[in-house]
Design brief:
422 residues, mainly alpha, 20 helices, 0% strand
């Protein structure tokens, strides 16, 4: 009996070790090679500044702060090889100042090790929270070989760590601290507040995050109003970005409108996108707050998915965060077999490389947007490979929350204040 029981466990361990070995091999390639094994697969590896450019934005900002210079300035500092404009809160540059004592390349590699540590913590945390062995191994395996995650490493980005810390904040005893750090790294996780408000035990998460952001940003921006304008414009007045590197619903909508010969002025386009965005977030917030089937493990993903689904600048590396949300949804109770299959199918699409490498044959780094040379269907295939799973996950989360019906606002407030667990 024990021998038969041990065989499936042994197979699981072997598969897991093979996946970890493949993961580490790709990560090693990213760390040490200028053109790693993933280089031909992505718009952001071929047609953008270069490996680590997003991390170097923070490195450059931290170096500027050490010298008493505006972290949002795009000055040459004599050390950072290249970088994108800095668009995070000032506290992020302050927190990364210790890494500026290292060379940019060494600091970048340290950041990749931190990302790997966060991934490991997340995988260990959800391992025992997904009861079915097959579902658990599939989810863990797809996260280990996730193409957007490897792109996140290549770019030295911050979306994965922000979303993951937000989710770990729901699962670990130190959750309040983790959620605060998540919000400080990327305030997009403030979108989770309605779900946290639905249960009293998470009220401290939301309150401490809001207080933390206010304390470290308001006094700073009051002293430096010109920097506030830069931060606000970079994050809330988005323009353009509708090219081959965009993997969001807005890009799909733009392609459809162009092919249907429905031209929109910039003002009408902004109005359309903002209306869709605010309507989706408002409707999702109401559903999360009024659902009789309250669950932060689905409510938080629903709200963050509403963000990723409607944001204008959705890049491929953002799917590393969406994949984490999918895995968290698999830890929800009473999710059902169809729900699990839909999430795993979405996670498979999210983790797989797109067909970008097939269509971008020239791989000309001097070209900003290679899609102008492609057949029309190519852009649709590429963007749909990420929009479909993101939309599927969003629909799964809303169906899960709405399946048991809605409460009245007064009943929802009483239930939240009563501290009834999900």
């Amino acid at each position: 009996m024990s021998r038969c029981a041990s065989r499936p466990e042994a197979r699981v361990v072997i598969v897991l070790l093979l996946l970890i070995a493949a993961h580490l091999g790709i990560v090693s390639s990213i760390i040490w090679q200028d053109r790693p094994i993933i280089w031909p697969l992505h718009n952001d590896t071929i047609h953008r500044a270069g490996r680590g450019a997003d991390f170097y934005a923070v490195y450059h900002a931290g170096l500027n702060q050490r010298k008493g210079i505006d972290p949002y300035a795009n000055n040459a500092d004599g050390a950072t090889p290249y970088f994108y404009p800095y668009r995070y809160l000032p506290i992020v540059a302050t927190a990364f100042q210790p890494l500026t004592s290292l060379s940019p390349q060494t600091a970048y590699r340290v950041w990749l090790l931190i990302l790997e540590g966060v991934l490991a913590l997340f995988l260990v945390t959800i391992w025992n929270r997904i009861p079915e062995t097959g579902v658990r191994l599939s989810a863990i395996g797809l996260l280990l070989i996730s193409s957007p995650y490897f792109l996140e490493l290549y770019m030295g980005q911050f979306t994965f760590v922000s979303v993951t810390l937000c989710c770990l904040g729901l699962l670990l005893p130190m959750g309040q601290l983790l959620f605060c750090v998540s919000v400080l790294i990327k305030p997009l996780t403030l979108a989770a507040l309605p779900a946290l408000a639905s249960q009293r035990r998470y009220w401290a998460h939301g309150a401490s995050a809001i207080l933390c952001v206010a304390l470290v940003t308001v006094p700073y921006f009051v002293r430096h109003p010109e920097q506030w304008l830069v931060f606000f414009n970079e994050n809330f007045r988005l323009q353009g970005g509708l090219h081959a590197g965009n993997y969001g619903f807005a890009r799909l909508l733009q392609l459809l409108l162009n092919d249907l010969n429905i031209p929109l002025s910039p003002q009408r386009w902004d109005s359309l996108v903002h209306t869709l965005r605010y309507a989706a977030f408002a409707a999702t917030s109401l559903l999360v707050l009024l659902s009789k089937r309250r669950s932060v493990l689905v409510g938080v993903p629903a709200l963050l998915l509403a963000h990723f689904l409607t944001y204008q600048h959705v890049w491929e590396h953002h799917m590393s965060g969406v994949s984490v949300l999918a895995a968290v949804m698999l830890t929800a109770r009473d999710r059902g077999r169809l729900f699990s299959y839909a999430i795993l199918f979405s996670l498979l699409l999210l983790s797989s490389p797109t067909l970008f490498g097939v269509f971008d044959v020239a791989r000309d780094r001097a070209v900003f947007d290679p899609s102008g040379q492609w057949p029309k269907y190519a852009s649709y295939l590429i963007v749909l490979s990420k929009v479909i799973p993101t939309l599927t996950l969003y629909l799964c989360s809303t169906v899960y929350l709405g399946r048991s019906g809605l409460m009245s606002p007064l009943a929802a407030v009483r239930r939240a204040a009563g501290g009834i667990p999900s």
